[in-house]
Amino acid sequence: MIELFSSVNQVSSLLFWGILLITIAIYFGVMESNKKEKAFQKVFKAINVVLLIWGILLLIGAAKGHQSFWLPLKSNTAMEHTTTASQQTPLFTEIYNMGDLKKKQTEAIALQKPLLIYFYSSYCSLCNKLNEITYKEAKIIKSLSENYVAVKINVADKSDKKMLEMKKHFNILGTPAFVFFDAEGEKIDDNVLYGYQGVEEFYDTLDLMAE
After folding, report:
1. What SS3 class is residue 107?
2. Which CATH architecture has domain 83-209?
3. Which biological process annotations from GO are given for this protein (predicted)?
4. How far, in Å, are 72, 156, 178 from residue 116 at the CA level?
5. Element (H, E) at 179
6. Which residue in 22, 45, 76, 152 has a CA-CA distance of 20 to 30 Å to 206?
7. Burial class of 148 by CB neighbour count within 10 A (0 to 12, 13 to 18, 19+)
8. Is the dihedral of CA 65, 71, 72, 73 positive or negative?
9. Beta carbons of 196 and 126 less than 8 angstroms apart
10. pLDDT of the chain, 211 residues: tens digit per residue
């Protein structure tokens, strides 16, 4: 439900998260002092302090127009400058219907490369984290660019019938989600991979699926 708020825009999302984290911290007594606190209470207090600080950082980031939940004080321009030159070409080709997908499947088979289908949403915080961290790593860029035909599908618009057709075809239940086809056009594994993957984990996944 929280991610629905960020579909409006990322700035309002940071603002919402900042207010939420600060409210939670205050509600659970971050400002209260008790010298007789037990060990577990001190741990709980420390967690609330972290939430309070993170909430404040998010508010500052939102006020400056920044977009990253994980790096709220880093400007959008600075983040763009960290992108390597090889990332100027999009890692994923956006597709919009089954016709686009079939063309990419044909292309992958012709090139003898596996096909990666990435289902994402513009209001998915984990998808944004992938964009900000995992997809900016040089070895991920190299692996996707050299070894894969990679496409992505935005599932945010619930009224898009062509998108819904692709989502239903692969039985996608959430985002981020990954579907792999081998170089012969056969689906690898019947399961869809869900969730955030850090640099090393995603690199290992790409390496494994490309074998």
Report:
1. helix
2. 3-Layer(aba) Sandwich (3.40)
3. cell redox homeostasis
4. 30, 19, 7
5. strand 177-181
6. 76
7. buried
8. negative
9. yes
10. 344 334 444 445 778 888 999 999 888 887 877 767 777 777 888 898 999 998 898 888 877 766 677 777 765 555 545 544 444 568 999 999 999 999 999 999 999 999 999 999 988 999 999 999 999 999 999 999 999 999 999 999 889 999 999 999 999 999 999 999 999 999 997 789 999 999 999 999 999 998 8
Degrees (nearest 5) of the Cα angle 88, 92, 72? Answer: 70
Residue boundaries of the structural domains of the chain: 2-78, 83-209
3-state helix, strand, coil in the chain (%, to 5): 55, 10, 35
76-79 LR contacts (CB < 8 Å, sep 24+): 79/132
pTM above 0.70, yes or no: no
Residues 211 and 198: their CA atoms lie apart, in Å, by 20
Tokens of 109: 């088979």
Sheet-wide strand order for 193-194: 93-94, 149-154, 115-120, 177-181, 193-194
Contact status, residue 65 vs residue 130, Cβ threshold 8 Å: no
**Strand partners for 179:** 117
Structure tokens at 148: 């894969």
